[in-house]
Every structure is written in structure tokens, then in C-alpha cells.
Amino acid sequence: QVQLVESGGGLVQAGGSLRLSCAASGRTFSTYVMGWFRQAPGKEREFVAAISRSGSNSYYRDSVKGRFTISRDNAKNTVYLQMNSLKPEDTAVYYCAAQGSIFNLNLVQVPRPYKYWGQGTQVTVSS
User: Fold this and answer.
1) Is residue 44 helix, strand or coil?
2) Whose CA is closest to 79, among 118, 47, 114, 108?
3) Which DSSP string do the residues of 39-84 spell out, in sequence order?
4) Are the CB atoms for 22 and 79 separated by under 8 Å?
5) Exposure winner among 54, 78, 96, 98, fewest CB in 10 A?
6) C-alpha angle 8/14/20, rounded to 5°?
7) Which of 55, 31, 34 is CA-nearest to residue 117?
8) For the residues of 2-14, what is the DSSP string, one character each?
9) Measured distance CA(89)–CA(66) in Å, rounded
10) How many Cα neighbours within 13 Å face the side chain of 68?
11) Sign of CA dihedral 70, 47, 92, 67
């Protein structure tokens, strides 16, 4: 079992920055591919970014490329999402998730393969 707890959300003006953190319980954090998803009101949950077990590979949805950076610290059992140049359309509840698989681009972009999910943290970007 892995428990995930997100933090770092909040209210920020357009153009601002936030850093989300996701702390994982357990000693097997480094064996999981980690992802960030988001869900806006009335919309489906969508992929944001994913990172491989070692942190050497990452992948982003097109709309956040160049603005968001995913990273992880396996010694601290934590994955991060640095969000810069935020836009109102980034407003959503952000979730971190873990899946125990190889870093497969077809698998990291969809919710179903992820076995563990956090409770989410709200990010609101005002215009």
C-alpha cells in the first residue's frame, strides 16, 4: 500500500508560480512511476505530467510544456510539480498518482493504470 498526500495548492494570479508536493508513505516509492493529473469542475480528469522511477524520464501534456516541471526525490519519498507562468485555464484540483510499471507513454497518460491516488489539492489561478 502507498498513501499519497498532496500539498502546495492555493490561489495565485495569472503569471505566478506554485510548487506542488506529493509525499508518499512506504519504502517502495522509488519503484513507482509517478504522475500528476488535474480535474476542473465539469471536466474529466486529465493528464499533466509523469516521471519515471529514477527521474531520468518525464513527459508532459502539450499545454504545460515549458511551464511545468515534474521532479522527484526518492530519498524523501516525494514528487514535485513546479508550475510557472500559470494561466486561468490551469485552475483545477491537482492529484498525484502512482503506478508500478515501466515508463510507457501509452500508460502514463491515462488514469486507469495508476493504482494509488492522493486526495488532491486545489489550484486557482485568477486573471
Assistant:
1) coil
2) 118
3) E-TTS--EEEEEE-SSSS-EEE-GGGTTTEEEEEETTTTEEEEEE-
4) yes
5) 54
6) 15
7) 34
8) --EEEE--EEEET
9) 16
10) 24
11) positive
- Amino acid, single-letter form, for residue 101: S
30 phi, psi to nearest 5 deg: -70, -10
At 111, list the grid cell. Answer: 488514469
Query: Mean per-residue pLDDT for 1-14?
Result: 96
Q: Which value, in Å, is the radius of gyration of the alpha carbons in the chain?
A: 13
Q: How many CB atoms lie within 10 A of CB 36?
A: 26
Residue 84: name the closest of 108, 109, 49 by CA.
49
The tens digit of pLDDT for each residue in 71-105 reads 999 999 999 999 999 999 999 999 999 998 789 99
Is the pLDDT assigned to residue 27 strictly greater than 80? no
